[in-house]
Structure formats: C-alpha cells, structure tokens
TrEMBL record:
Taxonomic path: Eukaryota, Metazoa, Chordata, Craniata, Vertebrata
GO cellular component: endomembrane system; plasma membrane
One GO biological process term: cholesterol homeostasis
Matching Gene3D superfamilies: Multidrug efflux transporter AcrB transmembrane domain (1.20.1640.10)
Name of the protein in its database record: SSD domain-containing protein
Annotated region described as Disordered, given as residue ranges: 1-41
Organism encoding this protein: Oryzias javanicus
Alphabetical UniProt keywords: Cholesterol metabolism, Disulfide bond, Glycoprotein, Lipid metabolism, Lipid transport, Membrane, Signal, Steroid metabolism, Sterol metabolism, Transmembrane, Transmembrane helix, Transport
Reactions catalysed: cholesterol(in) = cholesterol(out)
Length: 1326
C-alpha cells in the first residue's frame, strides 16, 4: 500500500456504545492512474470557471494537489456543498496522512502506514478492538486515538447503554480515523497548502441504516427523552440515518473542525467502494460477551407492544342504560300492582281486614274497635308500655323540678356552658388540606410521610401562564432551506422581551420576614448549589439564558438573517439539554440553573409536539419546601405573598397573565370564609327573628306583647349556641382541631334540631288544657313527660348516628361527626333543663299579663278565650284530612315511589370528586389560573416510584431488579414503567422514568472520563479538571467493564451524586439525582430511592383518580415482580385517595347511621319494631332522593357532600320520629285516624320548627360569593329541608295510614287508667 488518508483529531458530537471494534481489513480496491497536472487543469477547465480553482504542483513529479477556492459562497450554497449536492473534485487520491489535530489537518506523503506505538495498544483495544492484533500498521497514532476518545465522550455517555449501537458507531469513526484502507472510501475534496480542509466519506446505506436502527431507541434516563434527541441536532422523531451522520460530520454542530461530506451508497461510486462493515442489531450480543440491548433501549427486544385492556362497555338493556330500564320496569310494575290491589280492595271494602292496603276507619271488624279492656297485651307490648311509662314519669318529675327551681337550673346550666366554652381558648382551626382530607393512617398519608422524611417534601411552586390577545400566525422561513415554520403570536420577539422583563422583575422581588429581606435566591430550588446558585426557572426564556442580549442574538448580513431566536428555539425544543445548538448562533439551550427546560413544561396550547404552535408560555418557579421548619417556611410564605401582591398589580395590554402560588388556594379559601361571614350572619339573623316571632301564640292585638315569646325565642337560640360552643370547647380541651366545615355546618344542624324541639315543647304547652287542681309546674312537667321521649328519641338517634359516623377514616367527616353528636346531645340536655325553667318563668309572666321583654310592665287582666294557632288549625282541619283522603293516598304513594325509582337509577351516575374551582370565590384570581391550567397545559404532575429501604443495590440481583439497561430484568422497575409509558392513554404514565442507577453505570464505565479521582488523595476529580494525577475509577479490564458491586459500588456512588454535568461529562448526577438517593450514614449503603417520571395531562377529578389508581396498580405489580416494596407517589395522591373509597365510605356511614337510628328508635318507642322500620324506610328514601337531587343539580360526591349526607340523615330523624311516635301513642280507632291526629299535632310543629326556620336561612345562602356555598350548602341544604318535609309531612302519614304499626294495647289500657275521670279522657274520645 502506498498511501492512505488519516484524520488526526476527531470530535463528532453524536454516537456512543459500550463495545467498539471493526471488521477485518478489507481488500484494497484496484488503483487508477494518477492524474498529471495538465490532466487536472483540463478537468477543472471543463467543469469549473477559472476563478474558482487553483492547481498547485505536487512535491513529486506527476502528483497534483488541488485546493478548490470558492469566493465565499452564501450560506445556502455552502450547505449544499457540505451536503454533497454541489460539484465534487475527485483528483487527489494519494494523500499519506491527516496528521495533527482535526482543526489543523497536515498532508504527509511519506511511506506506508506506520506501526502503532505499543503504549497505545490498550487505547486501540478500547476504541477499535477490530484493529488490535499484534504489530498492526495503521493510519493513526497514539495522539489521534486519545483525541478520538476525548471527542467521543459525550456519545459514549449516552449510547453505551446499548453495546451494539456504540460498537457500530465506533466502527464508523475507527474506519475514518485509523483504517489502512481509507483510500477506498475517503476522498479529499479540498486542501489548503499542506492541510486537508474537506473530505468525502463513502458509507454504505446498509451500514448507516443498521447503525441508526441499533441506536434509535436508546434512552437518556436523566432527561426522559431518547438519546438521539440530544445527539442528532433535532427531535428523535425527525432523526434518521442520513441526517444523523450528516449532523455528526457537519461543522454546524460546533465541534467538527472541517466538513466531512458523507455519501451513502451500497454500490461503487466514482471508483470508491463505500464502507459497509459488519454491524450488530440491538437484539444481538457482541463477540466480547456483551449482551443484547435492553427492551427500553431496543424496541425489537420487547416483543409485541402491550395492548391495554378494553374498556368495559356500558351496562345497557335494549341500547338504553340498564339502571334506567330496570327502574322503569320496576316502577310500572309497582303501579300495575297498586292499581290491581286498589281495585280489589274497592270491591271488597265491607270485608277488608285490618291489614288491608286501604283501611276503612268505620270498619266494625277493626281491631281498634274491639273491647280493649278484654284484650290481653303481649309481653313485648307490656315491656314497651312500662319503658314508656318510666320515661314519662322521669321527664315529668324532672320538668316539674326545673320549673320549681328555675334559678338553680339556669345558673347551673350557664356555669357549665361557660366552663365548657372556656376551652375555646385552646381552639386550633385546621386549614391544611392534607389534615382535612387525608387520614394519618391512610396509605397516601403514610407514603407522603415516608417520601418527605427520606427525600424532603415536594417543592412548592409559583407559576405564570401567559397568553396574548394578539391573534394570527406568522411564518418563519429558515435561510438554509426547508418549508416555512408557522409561529403563533406569543412568540413575537417584542412580546418575549416583555415577558422576560416580567420574569426578571419577579426574580428581583424582595419580601420581608421578621425584619429580614427574602429574595427568590433565598428560597428557590438551585440543584447545583453551591457551585451554581442560579434558581431553577422553567421558562422558554431560559433557552436564551434569561438574557435580552441572547434573545436578540442573530447571525446575518445586510440582506439575510441566517439564524436568530426562531432557529435557536426550534433546536432547543428538540434538544433542551444541549450546550451548543447546531445553528450559526452556537448558543446553549441548557438553563442557567444547569438543567434542561423541557418544552412540555414551559409551553402550552400546542398540538402534538409542534411547539411552535404554542399559544401560551408557562413560567414555573420551584421553591423549597421545608419539613418542620417554621422559620424557613415563613420566609417562603412571605415571598409568595409578595409575589401574589406584585402579580395582582401587574398590567400589560399585550399579555394576559394567570398566576398562582402554593399558598393561593389556602389564602383564597380563608378569604372566602371571611367574605361569607356577612351572608352567614344574615342567614342566622333571619332564622333567629323568625324563631322569636313564631313561638308566640297571639290571641288578640291588645295582648300582642304579652303573648309573644321573643325573649323565650332568644333564650332558645342562646341555648343552641351554648351547646355548640360547649361542644367546641370540650374537644378543644382534648386537643382535637376544628375545621371550617365544623364551624359552618354544625350551628345549622344544631339549630335545626334544637329549634324543632323548642317549637314542640312550646306549642304542645300552648295547646294543652291544664287539668283540674293542676299547678303550673305539674302541667309543664306533664307536657314534658309527653314530648320529651320524642325529643329524646330524635336527639339520641342523631347523637349515636353521628358518633358512629366518627368511625370514618376521613378526618373532616370524623371531626364533624364528633362535634355534631356532642353538640346535639348537649342541646337536648339544656332544652329539658334550662329551657324548661325559662319556659316556666315565661308562662308565669304570661299568666300575670306582663309584657314580653319588658316584664316589669303589667297589663290589666281581661277574659280571653283560648284558641288554637292558625297553623295548627290548618293542619288539623285542612291539610291532614286532605292528604289522607282515600283517592289521594295512592297518588301520593305513586309519586314518591316514582321519585325513589328515579333516584335509584341516578345513584351510580353521581360524579365523584371535587372541582377545585368550586372552592374559590367568584372573583378569585385563582379561577383564571385553573381555567388556563386546564386549557393549555400538556403535562401532568411528576410521579415518583419509591423503592423502600432494604434493597441491596450492591448485588447484581438487586441492580437487575431495578435498572433498565443491558442485563437488567425484563420485569425490572424501570422496564415496567417504560412499558406502561407505551400505553400512556391507559396507564397515565407519560414518559420513561429517569433512572439514577442506569446513569450511574454509564458514568462509572472505564471508557468514560466522568469517574476519576486524585491518585494522591482519593478525592473526586471532575471531568473538566486537567490534572495528571487524576486517574480513572476503574481499570479498562473485562472486570472493570462490568457493573460495580459490593464496596466498589458504594465507593463511587457519592462522587456520582455530587458531580455536576459539564460538556465533557453530561452524566453527573448532582442536578438530576441529588435527592433521589437516600444514602445511609457514612455512605455505608443505599436506603430509599426514587425513579421519577410524569403523568399525562390531568384536568378533571376523574383523571386524577384514574392516575392514582394506575400508579398504585403499577407499583403493586413492580413490588410483586422484584419482591420488594415499591409505591407510587405524587403530590396530589394524598388529596384524591379519599375518592377511591368515597362510595364505600358513603354507603358505610349512611348504613351505620340508619342502623343506629333503627336500634335507638326501636328501644325508645317501647320496642315497637315496625315503628322503627317505618322511620328507617322514610329516612332511607330521603337519602336516596338526595342522590337523585345531586345528579340533577350537578353536585359531586366528596367529603363535603358526604358530611351533608350524614347531616341530612340526622335532620331527617326530626322530620320522621316525632310523627311516628305521635302515631304510636295515638288512641284513635284506625290507622288513618291515628295518622291524621299525629300529623295534626306534630306536623305543625315540625313544619314551623324546621321547615320554615331553615327555608328562610337557606335562601340567603344562594347569594353567597362562594361557589362551594352555593353548590354544597344552598343546594344541598335546600334539598334536605324540602325532601325531609315532603317525606315527613306527606309520604310518612300516608304510609302509616296503610301499613303503620298496630296500636299497643298495653299503652291504650294504661292511658285509659291514667286519664280516667279527667278532662283529658273527654278530649281523647273526641
């Protein structure tokens, strides 16, 4: 061989792998005749104009050297030439060597290839193992090999994960650099004196395609992107074999010192035989024992792409919703049966039995008309009567005592209330959403605590979403060819400068905390601190280093702009971690904080990956979050407050900015609560005024101020408030924190229960006739003995139901249930003691004709006829007889059963979740942020797969269970998450996880210059340091090329986690993984670690719930595969976990409450089981109908609505229990008459006590500024009151008239004996 071409210094920007080599040397091609100088001139004259070339005589006779000297063609022309599209000069063939560094190529024409220096054998074996056999003569020397190694460090770090990929890449460069057969496939096209300044490299299409195919799937774990996105000069989707190699050999990449023009062909071209060496597919192992690439880095190794399971089809019958069809059929069947039974009963009226569906009150065969004196009560009836008598005697005696000793009772009550309420000084209100909605024992809470304790709490954020009112799209025309690129108006450069001004102004904000100035740098996330203290700012402007001058940087002349911010942007969105773009600007894309800014985090409103179509800019300022550090947390809160104030006052006519800080939601909820205080106060004032006025029974205008009971009404209200404050105080003593739900809801609940009882006591007394020789205290005691069991029944049922509701795992529901149960019971105790005493005093005042409030003033006595109240007369004379008419009762049943059927069909259609926009006031700035967040963002929250402490990373088995590279298990953590990302629409996992372990393996490879230490001290030596004492961490031996295990693994891991990425080593783990690995004390081992990826975009509550479900399913599968605990954690999991079990929790809470009401009702009604069933059925119907209302009124099921449902269960007792008990003690002869009497006596009190009181207060809530008040309080409270009143005052009496419990014979006999010879006996017989 006479001469060859050798490149001395090679600096390609792309490509890497683990094994290198070359195929055996190829047979030299047949030599062609060397052109003479004259022949060369003739060729040039024929093909080029004289001013474009010069010919210089060679050093030897007959040789020719040519330098094609173009008069500086424009950039577009230069690009065509470098791409191989312009004319080529193929005359210089026998150039001995390209000596020296690549930036200065020397022509040396002496002798054949030279033997390699033995000292470089190891280096040759490392880089080009195919040339390593003895005393090999090559066209490269030791210096050139060292230069090649340094130039290939970046590709090595990213592509060596796949041995076949990197082997093929090294083959490409080894052939160009060292092959003794360069003349077969390398052609010098341009020389300058003794320097070669351009060459052609003939490469086989088969080889280039195979090399690309082996590398196309290789991942860059720290960046969650494919490695070719960082090494191809464009997004990996747009990269192919041709443009990747062209990019590596083009001077536009900023590293190649002269153009190498690749020519792709599988056949001989112009006498050159393309280099077409053997390649390895990514599914193949290498001859040196390296295994095939992993599935993550080689799609072909994965087998078929996973297919998500098909979604369950909706349950339908005849193409319609199955529940709707079933309930329609059921309802129509019920109507048919009802009609048939009605017709049969009508025809057989004379002989209908007591238990017939429609009872004729005049039926002579009715049980109620039998001679009860001869009847023999059952044992259960006798037991019930005795229990009833015991309660009557007990409450009568207690009522008489309270009336006789009012001051003792009132004073004692006041003292106890004050003592209990004094606990409010220890009151602590919880507004932390985590404490409100997540139980400390819940899985999400425990996982959050584990994550926070090992890695620190999830960072806080302040975020801007910027849009513009400018419309339209403008085209950008790349100077170097290609189709126009449309850019949205948000990318107008003037607007970008204005956005940058805003960003810089925020960076310079200074807040004050305890006299200290707090700036962004004091609280921001700076991953490279203390070496780089720049804050992490996820902004598209960080592609321009947050600099106006870099944003304005452009290259051009008076006629054309060759590169500007458009071209830089288009490059950076495809390679955000690049330190040098491929445009003529050569500006970095890496953010000033030392990390990449991924476009899906900084842009919004684009389609697919066309980031130039973005319509919104997203700027995120991650802030440090501190665990149990109130001082530093206070500083962050102070800066966030300053940020919010600044943004509220910011104005720019060219842009619209939606913003939010971490504290924004909590601040707005607090502001909302304060702003609604007036609305709540007005609501309560209306109820108070109504209660004060409605309690009085006015007989005449003259006696208005005597008969009114304003003072008694106010006292009753104070008793209600005292019971609430006592409950709050008692639990505050115990250290139980309050919530806003407790403060806002419990007064409403206790007022409903308490006012109802007040109306029952007062109105029963007003309607009662004092018996002969009966004193006032005896009368009130007797009245209390009649009504207190009913009050005790409702209050105890509600108390037990609420206390059992405290078994809920949801803190907000548990706290509400505890406070509500105790408040209701205290209210009952105060009503039968303090209120009864005050009632006795008020009755004495009225008997003495003293004025209400001004009790010192006394009117003259006049004779007045006692009459019933208007409402009572209406219920007794009009309402009760009307709804219990025989023709109307079936219609009422049909309507209510229809409502029930509709509600049952709607139960499974109620949405689960809470739209966070509802928790904000109507005028909140956060609403705009939520709207833009849903409309523009394309990426969900980060999700961390946390491997708990205990996995042995120093063993191969432990490593294989987690990693995703060569040799790792196909069911490893990284591999399973990667597989899940392939079906992201189903799994909600968007990207391949970042893997510290895989990057550590790449970082520590002996071929890499990343891992070095000072030989003298053992300290870490960064790749950018030039020092002869720095040596590689591991030897270049077969053992050194293996993964580190044992002590060696732990020796270098801390170095990796402290290494900052730099141009010579992009795998440093400080920025990406400093917090991902929890090292044990003294670096003795690896504790907990995490592997991070992202969820897909999540907009509505169902999206977040599905993401939580899928994350946990995936983590559970991983745990089972690797036999070690792994859990998924994201910042929103702790809030949405409640919705995984909200349906079960709702059913459990309501069923437990119903069961408690049933048991208590059974006992307190004298063991009348059927009466308890009536109460439970009616309450259950109310609850089911509440779900129908929720579906109709778009009220979702969540903790707030669950609290309201539990409350509605309690309030429903008030609507039902009094009616049922009045029915059970009625002495009338038939069910219809007993139902009518019960409705007349108790219906008016229930209607005036609960319905009218609550209705007036609820209507005011409709004017609240708070959406959550409008939806969950106004709508649900209104539904509770209306449904409760409708069922208690309409449906329940009708149902009792049909299937009510039979009369308790023991109670009838006892009543006859008790009232024998009294006026009451006459009244009962009317």
């Amino acid at each position: 061989m006479q001469s060859d071409l050798v490149a001395d210094q090679h600096q390609p920007p792309g490509g890497s792998s683990e094994r290198r080599g070359s195929s055996p040397p190829r047979k030299p091609a047949q030599r062609k005749k060397k052109p003479s100088t004259r022949e060369a001139k003739v060729y040039l004259q024929r093909h080029f104009t004289p001013d474009l070339w010069t010919v210089r005589n060679g050093a030897r006779s007959g040789d020719a050297r040519f330098t094609r000297t173009l008069p500086h063609p424009p950039p577009r022309r230069r690009r065509l030439l470098s791409m191989g599209r312009g004319p080529k000069l193929h005359l210089v063939r026998r150039v001995r060597r390209l000596a020296g560094p690549w930036k200065k190529i020397q022509l040396q024409l002496h002798g054949p290839p030279q033997p390699l220096d033995p000292d470089a054998y190891e280096l040759l074996k490392e880089l080009c193992p195919g040339y390593d056999y003895g005393n090999r003569s090559l066209c490269c020397d030791a210096d050139q090999l060292r230069t090649l190694k340094g130039s290939l460090q970046l590709p090595l770090q990213f592509l060596s994960r796949c041995p076949a990929c990197f082997y093929n890449l090294m083959n490409l460069f080894c052939e160009l650099t060292c092959s003794p057969h360069q003349s077969q496939f390398v052609n010098t096209t341009k020389v300058n004196g003794t320097n070669v300044v351009a060459v052609q490299y003939y490469i086989g299409k088969t080889f280039s395609s195979a090399m690309y195919n082996a590398c196309s799937d290789v991942q860059a774990p720290s960046s969650n992107v494919k490695a070719l996105s960082l090494l191809c000069g464009r997004d990996a989707r747009d990269c192919n074999a041709t443009n990747w190699i062209q990019y590596m050999f083009s001077t536009s990449n900023g590293q190649a010192p002269f153009p190498i023009d690749p020519v792709f062909s599988d056949v001989e071209v112009s006498g050159f035989t393309p280099m077409n060496n053997k390649t390895y597919a990514c599914t193949e192992g290498l001859e040196d024992g390296s295994g095939p690439c992993s599935c993550q880095d080689c799609t072909k190794a994965c087998g078929p792409k996973p297919v998500p399971p098909a979604a369950l089809p909706p349950w339908t019958i005849f193409g319609y919703d199955a529940m709707n069809v079933i309930m329609w059929i059921s309802y129509l069947s019920f109507l048919l049966i009802l009609s048939v039974l009605g017709a049969l009963c009508y025809r057989r009226r004379p002989i209908i039995s007591e238990y017939g569906p429609i009872l004729d009150s005049n039926n002579p065969l009715s049980l109620n008309d039998d001679d009860l004196s001869q009847a023999s009560p059952s044992c259960c009836e006798t037991l019930g009567e005795r229990f009833e008598s015991f309660l009557r005697v007990l409450f009568s005696s207690w009522g008489s005592f309270c009336v006789r000793n009012p001051f003792v009772v009132v004073l004692g009550s006041v003292v106890l209330v004050v003592a209990f309420s004094f606990g409010l000084r220890y009151m602590h209100i919880t507004t932390d959403p985590v404490e409100l909605w997540s139980s400390p024992a819940s899985q999400a809470r425990q996982e959050k605590n584990y994550f926070d304790s090992h890695f620190g709490p999830f960072f806080r954020t302040a975020q801007l979403i910027i849009t513009t009112s400018r419309n339209g799209t403008y085209p950008y025309s790349p100077y170097f060819g290609g189709s126009d690129v449309p850019f949205k108006a948000i990318f107008d450069k003037d607007l970008l400068h204005q956005v940058l001004d805003l960003q810089l102004a925020i960076e310079n904000l200074a807040a004050t905390y305890e006299g200290q100035s707090v700036t962004l740098k004091d609280i921001c996330v700076a991953p490279l601190a203390p070496y780089n203290n720049n804050c992490t700012i996820l902004s598209v402007l960080n592609y321009f280093q947050n600099s106006h001058s870099v944003l304005d940087h452009s290259i051009g002349d008076d006629f054309y702009i060759y590169a500007d911010f458009h071209s830089h942007f288009l490059y950076c969105v495809s390679a955000p971690a690049s330190l040098n773009d491929t445009t003529l600007l050569h500006d970095p894309c890496l953010g000033t904080f030392g990390g990449p800014v991924f476009p899906w985090l900084a842009l919004g409103g684009y389609d697919d990956t066309n980031y130039n179509n973005a319509t919104a800019l997203v700027i995120t300022f991650p802030l440090n979050n501190y665990l149990n550090d109130s001082v530093r947390t206070g500083k962050v809160l102070a800066w966030e407050k300053e940020f919010i104030g600044f943004m509220k006052n910011f104005s720019n006519s060219n842009m619209t900015v939606a913003f939010s800080a971490e504290r924004s939601v909590e601040d707005e909820i607090e502001r909302e609560s304060n702003s609604d205080i007036n609305t709540i106060l007005i609501s309560y004032i209306i109820m108070f005024v109504y209660i004060s006025l409605a309690l009085g029974h006015i007989h005449s205008l003259r006696m208005l101020l005597v008969d009114s009971k304003i003072s008694l009404g106010i006292a009753g209200i104070l008793i209600v408030l005292g019971s609430v404050s006592s409950s709050l105080g008692i639990f505050s003593y115990a250290g139980v924190p309050l919530t806003l739900i407790v403060i806002e809801v419990i007064p409403f609940l206790v007022l409903a229960v308490g006012v109802d009882n007040i109306f029952i006591i007062v109105q029963t007394l007003q309607r009662d006739e004092r018996l002969q020789n009966e004193e006032l205290h005896q009368q009130i005691g007797r009245v209390l003995g009649d009504v207190a069991p009913s009050m005790f029944l409702s209050s105890l049922s509600e108390t037990v139901a609420f206390f059992l509701g405290a078994l809920s795992n949801m803190p907000a529901v548990r706290t509400f249930s505890l406070f509500a149960g105790l408040a209701i019971f205290i209210d009952f105790l105060l009503q039968i003691s303090c209120f009864v005493s005050l009632l006795g005093l008020d009755a004495r005042r009225q008997e003495r004709n003293r004025l209400d409030i001004c009790c010192c003033v006394r009117l003259s006595e006049i004779e007045e006829t006692k009459s019933d109240g208007v409402l009572y007369r209406f219920f007794k004379k009009v309402y009760a007889p009307l709804i219990l008419r025989e023709w109307l009762r079936p219609l009422i049943v049909a309507v209510f059963v229809g409502m029930l059927s509709f509600s049952i069909a709607a139960v499974n259609k109620v949405q689960i979740g809470l739209d966070q926009k509802l928790s904000m006031p109507d005028d909140s700035y956060v609403l705009d942020y939520f709207k833009n967040l849903s409309e523009y963002l394309h990426t969900g929250a980060p999700v961390y797969f946390v491997v708990e402490d205990g996995l042995d990373y120093t063993s191969l088995d432990g490593q294989n269970a987690v990693c995703g590279g060569v040799g790792c298990s196909n069911n490893s953590l990284v591999q399973q998450v990667y597989t899940a990302s392939l079906i992201s629409n189903y799994t909600t996992i968007a990207y391949t996880p970042s893997s510290w372990l895989d990057d550590y393996f790449d970082w520590i490879k002996p071929q890499s210059t990343c891992c070095r230490f000072y030989n003298s001290t053992g300290g870490f030596c960064n790749a950018s340091v030039i020092n002869t004492t720095c040596v590689s961490c591991r030897p270049l031996t077969p053992a050194g090329k293996e993964r580190p295990v044992g002590d060696e693994f732990m020796r270098f891991l801390p170095m990796f986690l402290s290494d900052n990425p730099n141009p010579k080593c992009g795998k440093g783990g400080h920025a990406a993984y400093a917090t991902a690995v929890d090292l044990k004390p003294n670096n003795s081992g690896v504790g907990a670690t995490y592997f991070m990826t992202y969820h897909t975009i999540l907009k509505e509550s169902p999206d977040f719930i599905d993401a939580l479900k899928m994350g946990r399913i995936l983590a559970r599968n991983i745990s089972q595969s690797i036999n070690h605990t792994v859990f998924a954690y994201s910042v929103f999991y702790v809030f949405y976990e409640q919705y995984l079990t909200i349906a079960y929790d709702t059913a459990l809470n309501l069923c437990v409450s119903l069961a408690a009401i049933f048991v208590v009702t059974t006992v307190l009604l004298g063991f009348e089981l059927w009466s308890a069933v009536m109460v439970s059925i009616t309450i259950a119907m109310i609850l089911v109908n509440m779900f129908g209302v929720m579906w109709l009124w778009d009220i979702s099921l969540n903790a707030v609505s669950l609290v309201n449902l539990v409350m509605s269960c309690g309030i429903s007792v008030e609507f039902c229990s009094h009616i049922v008990r009045a029915f059970s003690v009625s002495m009338k002869s038939s069910r219809a008459e007993r139902a009518e009497e019960a409705l007349a006596h108790m219906g008016s009190s229930v209607f005036s006590g609960i319905t009218l009181t609550k209705f007036g207060g609820i209507v005011i809530l409709a004017f609240s500024k708070s959406q959550i008040f409008q939806v969950f309080y106004f709508r649900m409270y209104l539904a509770i009151v209306l449904l409760g009143a409708a069922h208690g005052l309409i449906f329940l009496p009708v149902m009792l008239s049909y299937i009510g419990p039979p009369m308790n014979k023991a109670k009838v006999l006892a009543a006859n004996r008790r009232y024998a010879g009294t006026e009451k006996e006459r009244l009962l017989k009317r």
